[in-house]
């Protein structure tokens, strides 16, 4: 490729952007990736690192299954550490176990286990009231802090891919099909096709499109706690997770669970929580989370919500935890669907996941977008 010309320009080096770059390069295109930061620091590093295939239904399930294969392919090609059979649903009441049992009756990859086996899967920890659980065998896990940077580094070593960090997208100077000129903070780049993959920042780069599709930002309260002294190999989902993820939430058994949570735990509902956690390679736990929608998010976190999350995870594990870090996660959200693709100009397309499953579906969504399968 010449210095400022390429076949495909990708804006944004999160998982969705990296997926576009990978698919375009594998199809024989020269690729330039620009990102306003000096490394990935957005939603792709602020999450649990959970590829939650089990929790998806419909089109999201199809995308998740495709992404799962692409993650496994990346493990082979790029040396990215991907843990398989990496989901665990924990039940602490009969109505929670009923949800898991019902889902297991329709999916071979959901394997119910008894209370003792569940505690073993929790590293020997677990509250006295754990009644059982289920292994979620389709799910994968990666380390969210290191995976996107590792994929970017691997891609940048290819002759057909170039990364330009600390380079901002400023708009389209001129665009016809097959010949697009993009203005950046470091000069113009000419490309045949452009993919703008900026997640929740779509309202900055294409505010009219974001407003037309009612795109909001979803803010999450997330925390990191010190190594509790035991190992949990799976991403752990709990009762509030069953209310949130489609495959669990579409069971008939979930109705009784939802009624009980509404009656007994309005605090969990008020904060729109999904109490779950994963363990990093250093042993620390990533725990969360809560959800709050707004077009512009306040930067201030509510300590009461953080305390609620910590208390819930401590109760599930039956041990005290020490907080060593906290942050606000953020992703794009809209009522009209789980992802948004749109033409911004001839040859210029946007792609954002508009629910909290970017790690789960992003690679397959990107590949289909590059292949022209999404309008």
UniProtKB/TrEMBL annotation:
InterPro entries: FAD-dep_OxRdtase, FAD-dependent_OxRdtase_HpnW, FAD/NAD-bd_sf. It comes from the Bacteria. The keyword Flavoprotein applies. It comes from Gordonia malaquae NBRC 108250. Residues 7-363 form the FAD dependent oxidoreductase domain. This is Putative oxidoreductase. GO terms for molecular function: oxidoreductase activity. GO terms for cellular component: cytoplasm. Belongs to the DadA oxidoreductase family. The keyword Hydrolase does not apply. Its cofactor is FAD. Keywords: Flavoprotein, Oxidoreductase.
């Amino acid at each position: 490729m010449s210095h400022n010309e390429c076949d495909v320009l990708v804006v944004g080096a999160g998982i969705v952007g990296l997926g576009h770059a990978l698919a375009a390069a594998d199809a024989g295109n020269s690729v330039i990736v620009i990102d306003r930061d000096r490394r990935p620091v957005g939603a792709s590093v602020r999450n649990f690192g959970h590829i939650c295939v089990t929790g998806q239904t419909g089109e999201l399930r199809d995308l998740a299954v495709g992404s799962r294969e692409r993650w496994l392919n990346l493990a082979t090609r790029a040396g990215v550490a991907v843990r398989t059979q990496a989901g665990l649903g924990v039940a602490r009441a009969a109505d929670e176990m009923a949800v898991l049992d019902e889902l297991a009756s329709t999916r071979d990859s959901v394997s119910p286990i008894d209370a003792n086996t569940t505690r073993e899967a929790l590293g020997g920890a677990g509250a006295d009231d754990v009644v059982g659980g289920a292994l979620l065998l389709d799910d994968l896990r990666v380390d969210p802090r290191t995976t996107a940077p590792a994929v970017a580094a691997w891609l940048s070593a290819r002759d057909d891919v170039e990364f330009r960090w600390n380079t901002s997208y400023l708009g389209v100077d001129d665009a016809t099909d097959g010949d697009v000129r993009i203005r950046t903070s470091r000069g113009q780049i000419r490309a045949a096709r452009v993919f703008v993959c900026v997640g929740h920042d779509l309202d900055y780069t294409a505010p009219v499109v974001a407003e037309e599709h009612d795109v909001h930002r979803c803010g999450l309260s997330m925390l990191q706690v010190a190594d509790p002294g035991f190992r949990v190999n799976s991403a752990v989902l709990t009762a509030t997770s069953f209310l949130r993820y489609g495959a669990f939430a579409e069971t008939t058994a979930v109705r009784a669970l939802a009624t009980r949570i509404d009656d007994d735990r309005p605090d969990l509902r008020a904060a729109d929580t999904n109490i779950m956690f994963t363990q990093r390679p250093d042993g620390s736990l990533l725990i969360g989370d809560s959800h709050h929608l707004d077009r512009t998010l306040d930067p201030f976190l509510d300590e009461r919500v953080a305390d609620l999350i910590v208390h819930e995870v401590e109760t599930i594990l039956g041990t005290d935890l020490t907080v060593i870090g906290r942050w606000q996660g953020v992703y794009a959200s809209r009522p009209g669907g789980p992802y948004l693709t749109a033409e911004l100009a001839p040859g210029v397309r946007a792609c954002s996941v508009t629910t909290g499953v970017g790690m789960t579906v992003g690679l397959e969504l990107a590949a289909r977008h590059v292949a022209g399968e999404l309008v």
